[in-house]
Amino acid sequence: MRTNILAVALQLVKEEGWQSLSIRKIADAIEYSVPVIYDHFENKEAILFELSMDGFRLLDRLLEKDKRKYADPEERLRAHAETYWNFAFKNPEYYQLMYGLGMPCSSPGKAKPEFNSFRDHIGEAIEGIVTDKKSSDEETCFKIHAFWSVLHGLISIVMMRCSDIDDSQMNKKVMDDSVNAFIKNL
Amino acid sequence: MRTNILAVALQLVKEEGWQSLSIRKIADAIEYSVPVIYDHFENKEAILFELSMDGFRLLDRLLEKDKRKYADPEERLRAHAETYWNFAFKNPEYYQLMYGLGMPCSSPGKAKPEFNSFRDHIGEAIEGIVTDKKSSDEETCFKIHAFWSVLHGLISIVMMRCSDIDDSQMNKKVMDDSVNAFIKNL
DNA sequence: TTATTATTACTAACGGTGTTAACCCAAAAG
DNA sequence: CTTTTGGGTTAACACCGTTAGTAATAATAA
User: Fold this and answer.
1) ipTM
2) How many other CB atoms sit within 10 Å of the CB of residue B4?
3) How far apart are CA A153 and CA A28, in angstroms?
4) pLDDT tens digits, residue range B125-184?
5) Which of A176, B55, B111, B165 is the most buried (most CB within 10 A)?
6) Distance from A76 to chain B by nearest Cα, in Å?
7) Tens of pLDDT, residues A91-127
8) How far apart, in Å, are the Cα atoms of B154 and each of A178, B7, B114, B176?
9) How far is the C-alpha of A78 from the C-alpha of A91, rounded, in Å?
10) pLDDT-derived band of residue A165, with 50, 70 and 90 as boundaries?
11) What are phi and psi of B120, to 5 degrees?
12) A104 contact residues in B (CB cutoff 8 A)
């Protein structure tokens, strides 16, 4: 039942955006009355929160796959960037829930570990690259944030369609370019 | 009247977040009944849209001030970055409305010029820096996007409180660091 | 078998939302 | 003096999140 609610909610979010998700629509879709939903979830926010957690877990699995596939930290970092990018555009509804500004479900304290999964993964890879070179912990921390920022920022800008580059292939090239420049200057 | 509605709406958004803004609350605050609001705005989305436009205009004024103050493109670019950063954290409600993912008021086509004001400003500065060096139009375009991305990304990450750096001074240092690295490698 | 409890689902309501149709009334125009 | 206009209202519609109260059914205890 609980999983069914989440599955249906995700479907509705995919179809009409998370803004128009309503408890009543979920109830209709699972062919139950409204209050049964409150037997399984505290409130609507809890549903969105759980959906975003599913998103974090899905992304985490993909990153773990990269980790197993690529031992070389540079290759792994490139793979992580690609994975993050593809995840965002294949699952924009998840990405908005997970990283959108002012989302009703984002409770900063609650989901810290899941929230930082991506940061931790790229952090590991970057530390792997940087280990030979002399780089203080602070510098490394800065670099991790800078890498995450450029990825997240570019994804956001493209998702909001405020990039004047319309071609998606082109946008990906911008990302690859940024990733290359970043790695070169590590 | 129209300006009054917008002023009151902005005040409410500042106090309780844009999620909890309602037409009735605005009507109460301006001491009129609900339908008068619809004499001045098509719907709620139009109010949020107009607010976000005010945000774009405010940011644009600040960037224009930088432009007048700094003739040297590198100094100007640094000033623009600082201005963008400060604008975001002094006016988080504006920033969320303007650049938030999945905002109900963001209509990609409508506000393109305002949306791209920041990009255009940093674009001008970057072109000024890059003019001596050999850089194709495409490369320059990429660099502009990369610069915007790292700023917007970092602001978003810090705003969502998913940065593990709690100190705001520290976060600004990460930005300065990124800006420095970016300019050095132009 | 009967009585009691627990489970599962429902209806119906409360207060709130965006939006709009219908109306009211005072001031200006004929 | 009547009519039109414009600014303002009330009241409603259809939806929303949330919850109290209830009916029915299944499981358990007597």
Assistant:
1) 0.89
2) 14
3) 37
4) 999 998 877 778 888 988 999 999 999 999 999 988 755 666 778 888 889 999 998 998
5) B55
6) 21
7) 999 999 999 888 887 766 776 788 899 999 999 999 9
8) 15, 29, 21, 11
9) 20
10) low
11) -65, -40
12) 19
Q: What is the pTM of this model?
A: 0.92
Reply yes or no on whether the pLDDT at B70 is more than 90: yes
The answer, for A141 touching chain B at a CB cutoff of 8 Å, is yes
Would an 8 Å CB–CB cutoff place A71 in contact with chain B? no
B169 touches chain A (CB under 8 A): no
Report pLDDT digits (tens) over A3-42: 999 999 999 999 999 999 999 999 999 999 999 999 999 9
In angstroms, the Cα distances linking B88 to A103, A126, A137, B18, B56 are: 17, 28, 28, 15, 11
pLDDT in tens, A57-75: 999 999 999 999 999 999 9
Residues of B in contact with A81 (CB under 8 A): none
Structural domains of chain A, ranges and CATH numbers in brackets: 1-41 (1.10.10.60), 53-184 (1.10.357.10)
Nucleotides of D under 7 A from a protein CB: 7-12, 15-21
Q: Which residues interact with strand C by a CB < 7 Å criterion?
A: A 1, 32-36, 39; B 21-25, 34-35, 38, 43-45
